[in-house]
């Protein structure tokens, strides 16, 4: 199931100021907007997550989110994951916006961000590192290869509304790619695919993004055993601190001839 775009009548206004009296012209045509739909995740009648996402790869998204939140250890902890048959629109059609999961393992989330009132920066970082399944295995990437990773995400249409998460080899070859309006959910979908394929921890892999690396993104990578993150955008201070504390490599502002290494690679 995937509803990537929705159609609307779109009116374009254009200004012609070449003549003495400026004129505004209008033109109405069929246009599209990136689909954004709500998604509710329930287990045993309890709502675990309410969010919005780009429809598609929802089972991966659910598995990835459950895994990075510490609610499951692997795919076998999810007995079933299915859309609720009773979630229908006014026309009686399934909305595909409510998913029920049957989780075999106890619901014991490990994320320290769920209730972080008064939590210090150091405590937050420490709790995230200790909640990870295990230490990451450093990725052996040749120095000249770091300049190639950005090409995996920057060649796409700059106007595309969705964010991209790519799992790459140490040689900068793409292995897996997922997109979503929310970069965190793009990563969830990618991690979910790994969980379903019993491929976590993802040792020897690099996470490449086309947007900012935040603490939330760095934590998801750490939970999946991904030891390196590369982005042509920036990284937040907490993402840098987590990467350094967890022994990860974090490369930002990456291009074909320049990268900024914030963690790993013998950074001070």
UniProtKB/TrEMBL annotation:
Give the record's GO biological process terms.
Mo-molybdopterin cofactor biosynthetic process
Among the Pfam families in the record, one is FdhD-NarQ
Q: Name one GO molecular function term.
A: sulfurtransferase activity
**Which UniProt keyword terms apply here?**
Cytoplasm, Molybdenum cofactor biosynthesis, Transferase
Name it: Formate dehydrogenase accessory sulfurtransferase FdhD
Task: Indicate whether Transferase appears among the record's keywords.
Answer: yes
Q: Please indicate if the UniProt record lists Cell inner membrane as a keyword.
A: no
UniProt-listed SUPFAM superfamilies: Cytidine deaminase-like
- Look up the domain of life of the source: Bacteria
């Amino acid at each position: 199931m995937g509803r990537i775009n929705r159609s609307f009548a779109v009116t374009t206004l254009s200004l012609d100021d070449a003549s003495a009296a400026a004129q505004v012209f209008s033109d109405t045509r069929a246009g599209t907007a990136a689909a954004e739909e709500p998604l509710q995740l329930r287990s045993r009648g309890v709502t675990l997550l309410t969010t919005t996402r780009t429809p598609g790869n929802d089972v991966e998204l659910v598995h990835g989110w459950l895994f990075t939140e510490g609610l499951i250890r692997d795919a076998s902890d999810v007995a079933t994951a299915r859309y609720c048959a009773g979630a229908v629109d006014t026309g009686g059609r399934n909305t595909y916006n409510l998913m029920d999961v049957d989780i075999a393992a106890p619901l014991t989330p490990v994320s320290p961000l769920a209730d972080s009132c008064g939590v210090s920066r150091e405590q937050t970082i420490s709790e995230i590192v200790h909640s990870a399944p295990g230490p990451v295995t450093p990725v052996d990437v040749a120095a000249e290869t770091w300049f190639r990773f950005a090409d995996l995400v920057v060649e796409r249409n700059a106007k595309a509304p969705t964010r991209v998460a790519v799992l790459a080899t140490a040689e900068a070859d793409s292995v897996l790619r997922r997109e979503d309006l929310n970069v965190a959910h793009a990563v969830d979908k990618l991690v979910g695919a790994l969980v379903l394929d019993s491929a976590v921890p993802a040792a020897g892999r690099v996470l490449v993004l086309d947007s900012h690396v935040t603490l939330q993104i760095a934590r998801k990578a750490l939970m999946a055993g991904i030891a390196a993150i590369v982005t042509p955008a920036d990284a937040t201070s907490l993402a840098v601190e987590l990467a350094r504390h967890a022994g990860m490599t974090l490369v930002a502002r990456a291009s074909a001839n320049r990268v900024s290494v914030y963690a790993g690679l013998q950074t001070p």
